[in-house]
């Protein structure tokens, strides 16, 4: 019977490799212009479906506000997000996706989906369903 610690290490390594491969492939054509952290910000802003305060964005990303500010600074410089003052709180700033940000997010998601579809093509439909169910169980908190 395999040692549970060895199985955990093996699974962690396999998952890390799959994620790295997917990130690398989804960035093709963008070079290093959009990091994984920046992708998370774009995705979070899109999912929010409203303007977010920087503090809200940081909380949703589970990062410190200063880190969120740095990532937003870079994305704003690239024209992918924009800021505007919060009309209800002069101390706060709201962040939102620009049309260019939405376009890049859509392209990155499509590439990511294509890469995963290519990897999943090696599995039968039943295996894909089993894998999805197992990953869902592991993802639950």
Give your account of this protein's structure.
The protein is of the alpha+beta class. It has one domain (about 5-140): Winged helix-like DNA-binding domain superfamily/Winged helix DNA-binding domain (Arc Repressor Mutant, subunit A, Orthogonal Bundle). It has six helices and three strands. It has helices at about 5-25, 35-50, 55-60, 65-75, 100-120, 125-140; strands spanning about 50-55, 80-85, 90-95. The protein has a three-stranded antiparallel beta sheet. Strand 2 (about 80-85) and strand 3 (about 90-95) form a beta hairpin. The longest helix has 23 residues, at about 5-25. The mean pLDDT is about 90.
Helix content: 55-70%
Output the helix-strand order.
HHEHHEEHH
| Biggest sheet layout | 3 strands, antiparallel
Separation, N- and C-terminal Cα atoms: 28 Å
For the record, what is the CATH homologous superfamily label? Winged helix-like DNA-binding domain superfamily/Winged helix DNA-binding domain
**CATH architecture assignment name:** Orthogonal Bundle
CATH class label: Mainly Alpha
- The CATH topology assignment is Arc Repressor Mutant, subunit A
- Structural class call reads alpha+beta
Which runs of at least 5 residues are low in confidence (pLDDT < 50)? Answer: none
Overall geometric form: elongated
Placed side by side, the strands forming the largest sheet appear as 1-3-2
What is the count of distinct domains? 1
Number of extended strands: 3
Radius of gyration: 18 Å
Organism: Kribbella sindirgiensis
Pfam families: MarR
Domain HTH marR-type: 8-140
GO molecular function: DNA binding; DNA-binding transcription factor activity
